[in-house]
Design goal:
37% helix, globular, three-stranded mixed beta sheet, alpha/beta
Length: 343
Amino acid sequence: MSSATGSRVVVTGATGNVGTSVVRLLAQDPEVEWVRGLARRTPEWMPPKTEWSRVDVGSEQADLAERFAGADAVVHLAWAFQPTHDPAKTWRTNVLGSIRVFEAVAAARVPVLVHASSVGAYSPGPKDQTVDESWPTHGWPDAAYCREKAYLERTLDIFERDHPDVRVVRMRPAFLFKRQSASEQRRIFGGRFLPGPLARPELLPFLPDVPGLRVQALHTDDAARAYQLALRSPDARGAFNLAADPPVDADLLGGMLGTRPVRLPRTAARSAVAAAWGLHLLPASPHLFDAVLRLPLMDCTRAHSELGWRPEHTATDVLQEFLGGLQQGAGADTEPLRGRKIG
C-alpha cells in the first residue's frame, strides 16, 4: 500500500460511526501521507492530514474515479440504513452506489479495496457455537440490510475474478457501538423522538428475553484498528470476522443493568415491532428483527492470526459506554453523529 512518501487512503462514508474512527486512526498513522474523506455533508471536524470531498456515492453524477485518483487504497464504508419503508431507495445508495465505488476503484487503478460487509451478510446460523468466514453469505432475504450486504458479497466475487490485480478485503464486523454514535443510532433504530434518558435500568420493569436474541458486539474503534491492519498487511485478502466477547443475550444485559429477564415469545415481540414500524413509530423493521434472531455467532480466529488483531474492549464495556452516551445525548462534530438529547 505504501508509496515513496507514505500511503494515501480514500474513505467513503467518512463522517459516520465507523468512518470517524477509521479516519481518526489513519490520520494519526505515521505511515499514512493523507486521507481523503468522502461524505454527503462536509464536517467541521478537521483531523490532521485529512481533506474532505463532498460527494454522494448514490448519485449517478458522482465522479468517483476522479476522487480516487492517486490513492493507494479505498476503504468503502458509505451506507444508508433509512428509509426502511422504501427499500428501493436504500438499494440505490447501498448496492448501486457500492457498485459505482468498485468500478471507480478499477478505473482509477487503485490497488487495494477494503469493503465494509457485515455479520448481516451471513445466512442463518447457530447461536450455541461460532462459524468462520466460509459460512454462506446469502443473508436473510426479507431484511433489506441483509439482502444488500449479501448481494454485494456476490458482486465482489465477480469483481475479484475480473480484477485480480486489486487486493480486496471484506470486513464482517458484529454490531458496532461507541459513545459518540449513541445519538445517531438512537435515531436510526429507535426513532428521533425516543428519549435517550429513558435508557436507564431503573425505568425498565423487566428485560424481554426473546428466543434467539443472542448477538455479538464490537467497539467501533476496535473495528477501525482491523481496517488499519488490513491496509498495512500486503497479504491480507478475503473476509475477516470481527467481534468481541462475550456474546450479548438477555442474561448478560440483565446482569449488567440489574434488571430481571422475562421470557417473551418471538411472535409477541415481533408483533410489537411490526405494529410500531407499520405506524412509523419505530424505524427498525420487523424484517431486521427476524434477521437478528437468526444471525450466527462469528469465529474471529482468522483476524487474530493473520492480522494480529484483538479487540481492546469487551462487549460488556462497549454496551456500558454506549448506554452512557445514549443517556447523555453524546455525539461528535459531524452531521451524522451530531449529539441530540431529547426528553
